Amino acid sequence: MIALNALPPGFILILGGLVLPLFRGKLKNLFAIFLAGFGFWYIYQLEPGSTVSFHFLKYDLVILRVDKLSKAFGYIFTLSAFAAYIYAFYEKRSTQFVASLMYIGSSIGVVFAGDLFTLYICWEAMAITSVYLILARQTKESLAAAIRYLLVHVFGGLVLLAGIVISVQKTGSIAFDHFSEHNTANVLILIGFLVNAAAFPLSSWLPDAYPESTPMGGVILSAYTSKTAVYALIRGFPGWEVLIAVGCFMTIYGIIYALLENDMRRILAYSIINQVGFMVCGVGIGTTLAINGTVAHAFCHIIYKALLWMSAGAVLYRTGKSKCTDLGGLYRTMPWTLILGGIGALAISAVPLTSGFTSKTIIMAAAEHEHLIWVWLVLEIASAGVFLHAGIKFPYFVFFAKDKGLRPPEAGKPMLIAMGFLAFLCIYLGMFPNVLYNILPNPEVVREAMPYTFSGIYFENFSHVVTQTQLLMFSGLVFFLFLTLLKRTDTIAIDIDWIYRRGSSRFYRVMDIGLNGIDRVSHNFFVRGITQNLISFGKNAPAQIIYAITLPFWIATGATPSERMNRKKDIFIAVESSTIPIGIGAAIGILLLGGLFFL
Amino acid sequence: MDNDQEGIGQGYFDRPETKKRLWVLLWGFCIVSVIAEFLLHRHSYFSEDGIDGWFGFYAALGFASCLGLILLSKLLGLFLKKDPGYYDRT
Questions:
Q1: Is A555 on the interface with B (CB under 8 A)?
Q2: Residue A338, phi then psi, degrees to nearest 5
Q3: Cα–Cα distances in Å, from A494 out to A509, A584, B78, B80?
Q4: Which DSSP category does A409 fall into?
Q5: Which of A283, A10, A273 is nearest to A122 (CA)?
Q6: CB environment A429-459: b (16+ within 10 A), e (fewer)
Q7: Cα–Cα nearest to A258, from A307, A297, A203
Q8: Which residues in chain B have Cβ-Cβ distances shorter than 8 Å to A331?
Q9: What is the pTM of this model?
């Protein structure tokens, strides 16, 4: 019999997902909440350093590898699932529960996978199961977005697989650890990971698909795929400098598009890219402090981002609308959704007393310690920009702005309880982050570099509180001073996905015009041109030569132009019907032989 | 569910006097946050007199970067913004 702690935690959720449809009514919802809570406890009791592996073909598959890094991600994945299932108490159908439990189970499987095969299987399982959370919306748009989502992830998965196969061929090892060499295999694996991290230009699947999901689906999707990729990058590619550039670009790209977008959940989707940019940058910096900061930021990010998606989901659930141009003035009937979602908005903006302030700061400090002034500056600019789009724009246009006369009822109690729970965590971790620092891989390094007590953060380091407040207040001031520039329009912003959504038909047309054009030109030149000319040359050349030779004689003998025309016709007819007088035929033969002689 | 649409634009946050109060609050916070810097001994993280140690650096950075980001997105919006039916047309 397998001991309890020999079972990977992801399997528990996957098996639970398979059993779940047997439950009726609200027992289904309670069972999902229980599973997430049980998963959290199960991960808590796993001993760091323990592994479970079995022999498969000629490799050892490590289906469970426990260390502090995998435990930290395991905690937040189950914690976020726990809140999401409380939030989803309204949902009656089994589909989304089964799909999401398997999706979350697979992502936990990735986090605890010790080898590349197990990682790959779980990685692909995530892509397939998560699609159901988009399909469950049951609209034409969600179906199309789900197909595009799947295609992108199949592409990413294949790149990853190619990398793994080459790597295993070369090294003979399937262990999933730090990739130090910059070779083809590792670069392919890196690209595979970056697809899931939504790194530009492999990013547009996220804002394309997530906003088409159900309210519950959006909350769950926002947490796992990109953060599993962040985990994989931390494990495999810390200190790869290219990630600094990739991450910095993502932070700014996310903001620009979030400012352009009209759909509230698309704003939040771009804001995920912006936040994951901070994490990718942290992985690129690669120092112990940066890595721990990245883990801490991923942890806090999942909480406040789930909270933001919950508030947006509640609005969508109550009003059926998600465009900023259709929303506004909801503070009047949904004040709790506003207040709790607002706490998430403050946390993502790293306002003092919230979790963003105590986690993002570590990555910034890591950039400072490495004297990466430009990186630091971009991250500061991005921090200001976060407040602009996620901190103010989202709540302002949804809950305030122009009152559209919508009077939906407040979100249901389970939704508010889930949001309240996460909002509490946002504030608690902002005041007492040591709880979080304790579960990081190297808490002592973080505590050495950062203040970690309430008085340490808010009194002894008061200058940081002031500078952060300045940065954010002036960002807010700009928002309201230039509000006219930010006025919402009922538009979409085209992104890289244009290439496969519109570009493919353009590509077809260009190829059509290009290749068929070449075909036409070649046809005219070779078939009609050269061949035709050769034929008429072969046909008329002898007669032309005879005509050219005899013409001077005719002129000399004083033939009239009309006589010459008649004779010319006679020559052509004679050549065509092969009835040339022998004398002329012999003369041409001699001429030809003479020509050959001189050649 | 209160479905009647009466009182549109007459909620607490829609009133001009509330808006005025909020503006005062916003400017007040901005000014206080800058004044608070007088009480601090800040220094640059990067060098002896790095720009991040200058007085009001973060206020200026917040203002300038957000304005820059808004203008940049506005500019890109000229090319990137399309009507919602853009992808439905073949």
A1: no
A2: -65, -50
A3: 20, 78, 11, 5
A4: P
A5: A10
A6: bbbebbebbebbbbbebbbebbbbeeeebbe
A7: A203
A8: 11, 13
A9: 0.85
Q: Minimal CA–CA distance to A359: which of A312, A299, A451, A296?
A: A296
Number of C-beta neighbours around residue A504 at 10 A: 11
B34-63 residues touching A, CB cutoff 8 A: 34, 36-37, 40-42, 45-46, 50, 56-63
Q: Which of B36, B81, B84 has the CB atom closest to A260's CB atom? A: B81
Answer for the pair A543, A571: CB distance below 8 angstroms, yes or no: yes
- Checking if the pLDDT of A3 tops 60, the result is no
Residue linked to tokens 């590349």: A116
CB–CB of B13 and A373 under 8 A?
A: no
Tokens of A229: 């990729």
Q: Is residue A380 classed exposed, middle or buried when 0-12, 13-18 and 19+ CB atoms within 10 A define those classes?
A: buried
Residue A254 touches partner B, C-beta closer than 8 Å = no
Interchain contact, B62 vs A470, CB within 8 Å: yes
Side chain identity at residue B12, one-letter code: Y
Q: Are A235 and A318 in contact (CB under 8 A)?
A: no
Question: Which residues from chain B sit within 8 angstroms of residue A480, using beta carbons?
Answer: 23, 26
pLDDT in tens, A184-226: 999 999 999 999 999 988 899 999 999 999 999 999 999 999 9
Half-sphere exposure of A540 (CA within 13 A, CB side): 10
Angle CA(B32)–CA(B38)–CA(B43) in degrees, nearest 5?
120
Distance, in Å, from the CA atom of B69 to the CA atom of B20, rounded to the nearest integer, reads 26
Query: pLDDT class for A577, splitting at 50, 70, 90?
Result: confident
User: Is the predicted pLDDT of residue B80 greater than 80, yes or no?
Assistant: yes
What are the residues facing A56 on neighbouring strands?
Answer: A59
Residues of A in contact with B34 (CB under 8 A): 470
What's residue A1's pLDDT?
A: 39
Distance from CA of B87 to the nearest CA of A (A): 7
Cβ of A586: how many Cβ atoms within 10 Å? 11
Establish if A407 touches chain B: CB-CB under 8 angstroms. Answer: yes
| B67 contact A CB<8A | yes
Q: Which residues are within 8 A (CB) of A368 and not within 5 positions of it... i.e. 6 or more apart? A: A376, B45, B46
- Residue B5: per-residue pLDDT: 55
Average pLDDT, integer, range A581-589: 75
**pLDDT tens-place string over residues B22-66:** 999 999 999 998 888 888 777 777 776 677 778 888 999 999 999
